[in-house]
Each structure stands twice: as structure tokens, then as C-alpha cells.
Amino acid sequence: MQSDSPAQTRAEWLAGELADAILTGELAPGARLDETGLAARYGVSRTPVREALRQLATTGLIDAKPRRGATVTHVTSAQLEELFVAMGEIEATCARLAAMSMTPIERRRLASLHQAMAEIVERGDESAYADANVRFHSTIYKGAHNGIVAEIASSLRRRLAPFRRAQFRAEGRLRLSYAEHDAVVQAIARGDAVQAHTTMLHHVSLVEDAVDQLALAASERRIRG
């Protein structure tokens, strides 16, 4: 339960919880998502529930229709691949531009945030790491110093947010993510635009792999069940 946070934060948290439940098979395709029931289950009002369902609808995880409620859909690997390919290219572009455009202060702030995330990894705190991960990538978007590219990156990230948060349930994903971030940070710190682009593109591709692993594991459990 996260009832003491602002409404938008609660909605984002709830969207992540529901995405986890869908990707791990707890909520199977066709399952109905009742606002009142979800509000009671997660200890929140119906307002963040509605916002969470709206967010999930943009990802294709659920099908929400006016007056008919929301149901869990079956997201195809092709649909996910299209989103992640777009996300990878845009984030890689942000990293490349950041390597070229970040000020010394911005580079230090990025490095400081990255170092702080090491402690979160040691604690194994998936939720805290997911929150810090958003700040990490947003810092790179801002450091690109191109408002249009940053806006596109943020929009795509919102669509994929539940998936990106769910990835940290994959075994060993926190440490792997941190190592991937390290390669990006080092490239940006050196001002190596080509390497920053390459390492970020690789990072997002591995995020997609982690999400695919969760979906595959959930599918296998449903078959066995």
C-alpha cells in the first residue's frame, strides 16, 4: 500500500504493481479489472486506480472501454518489440547528445546519482531502484539539451513505464542494470558520443530481454497450471 503519496505517484506505483501481476501471470489475459476492487486491494482511492488503468491502456497491457471496464489483454512480442526498438533508438540519441552537450556540473550530477544507486543495489530494493532509474534516464534526457528529443523520450518512457519497472523482478537484474548504466555514464563523462549511443542502445535491448523473460516465465506457469 502507498496511500500517503501524491495521487500521480500512487497511480504510477499502482500501474507498476498491476503490470507486474500481468507479466508474472497473476492476472491472466481476459481478467476483468474492477476499479472498486483494485482500490480496496491496494488501499487507494479510485482516482489513482483510474489513472493507473489509463497508463496501462497506452501500453496495450489492458483494454479499457467506457462503461465496459478494463480487461487484461494478450500483449504480443511484436508489439513490445516495436515499442522497445523506438525507445532504444531515442534513448541512444539522448545519450549521444548528452555526451556532446552536458555541462561539467550535469556530468557530475549524473555520476553522483549513479553512485548513489550502487547502495540501492546492495540493499536489493527494487522499488527504490526503479524510482532512481527514472531519475537517471530523465537526467540524460535533460542533458541532451534538445527539448523535442527529450519530450519524445519521456512520452515513450511513460508508455513503457510498467514494463521497465517490472524488469527488476528478473533475477539479478538490479546488478546488471547498474553495470549497464556504468558503461553509459563513463562514455558520457568522456564525451564519447559514439560509445554513449552504443551502450545505451545495448542497455535498452537488455531491458527488453528481461521483460521477455518475465512474460515467458508467466506463460509457462499458465501452461503448467
UniProtKB/TrEMBL annotation:
Q: Name one Pfam family in it.
A: FCD
Q: Which UniProt keywords apply?
A: DNA-binding, Transcription, Transcription regulation
**SMART domains to which the protein is assigned, alphabetical:** FCD, HTH_GNTR
Fetch the Gene3D superfamilies from UniProt.
Answer: GntR ligand-binding domain-like (1.20.120.530), Winged helix-like DNA-binding domain superfamily/Winged helix DNA-binding domain (1.10.10.10)
InterPro entries the UniProt entry points to: GntR_C (IPR011711), TF_FadR/GntR_C (IPR008920), Tscrpt_reg_HTH_GntR (IPR000524), WH-like_DNA-bd_sf (IPR036388), WH_DNA-bd_sf (IPR036390)
Transmembrane stretches in the record are none
What PROSITE patterns has UniProt attached to this entry?
HTH_GNTR (PS50949)
Domain (HTH gntR-type) spans 8-75
Task: Point out the coiled-coil segments of this chain.
Answer: none
Please tell me whether the keyword S-adenosyl-L-methionine is annotated for this protein.
no
Name the Gene Ontology molecular function terms of this record. DNA binding; DNA-binding transcription factor activity
> Could you identify this protein by its name?
GntR family transcriptional regulator
Q: Which organism is it from?
A: Chelatococcus reniformis
